[in-house]
Amino acid sequence: MSPAPAHARKLVLVLADGLRADTARDYMGYLQALHEAGRASWSQLRCELPSLSRPLYATLISGRRPVDHGIVANGQSGQRCGETLFDALAAHGLRSAVAAYHWFYELLAGEVFDPLRHRHAALPQQGVVGASWYFEDEYPDSHLLADAEHLRALHAPELLFVHPMGPDHAGHQHGGESAAYALRARRLDMQLAHALPHWHAQGYDVLFTSDHGMHADRMHGGALSVERDVPIVWLPCDGGERADRVALPDSQLGVRAFVLERLTGQRG
Ligand SMILES: [Zn+2]
Hints:
The chain is an alpha/beta fold. It contains 13 helices and 7 strands. The chain has a single domain, classed as Alkaline Phosphatase, subunit A (3-Layer(aba) Sandwich). The longest helix is centred in the C-terminal third of the chain and has 23 residues.
């Protein structure tokens, strides 16, 4: 392990599950307010295929396509996805804390998640010093954000990874063009309006994105724009000065390298 470089920063990565690019743009007024004020850089990505959660979780943390890392279906329980962002940060001496769906535990630990044993299991070998894994799709985003903030305050990690499920869950129940789906995005925006100023005040930059979109037919997995196009928004803690100068990744494969570079100054 090499020591953390002097310019190392802190970052919150928010992965809103199943959030379409157009839904984020149209209904997330607080994030848009920061963008309008020049304090955020806003773009969108076309997710890799298949546009399914477990394959794309592995893509986001490994920087590789599903057909390359081998996690290509949601049913691949307990399979590890190889070297990840968390391993790379740990190699730089940087620590992470994670509040995320239990599939992330499986991708990192390489074993099937057991709620009674693993609910708060840290993964110190991968630099994950604190964790809270949820295992019901209806777990409220508000509780998840509170879990994440608890871990941040307790561990002061360089990376805080926050993974709310609300949009995906509402989309599967009501479809990607329903009032209920839009409402979940509006509520997440309001919850972020509570958390983000606090994270910024603590010196954390924030990167906000999603794994995949949502069709009106209550599913995703295919190649249509509504299933693939997701937001990516950069919200640095010192506002406008740095928002414009950051080149956001133009592919989902670049998210891992972007986070790594922000935290270490190096891409590898
Ligand atoms: Zn889903």
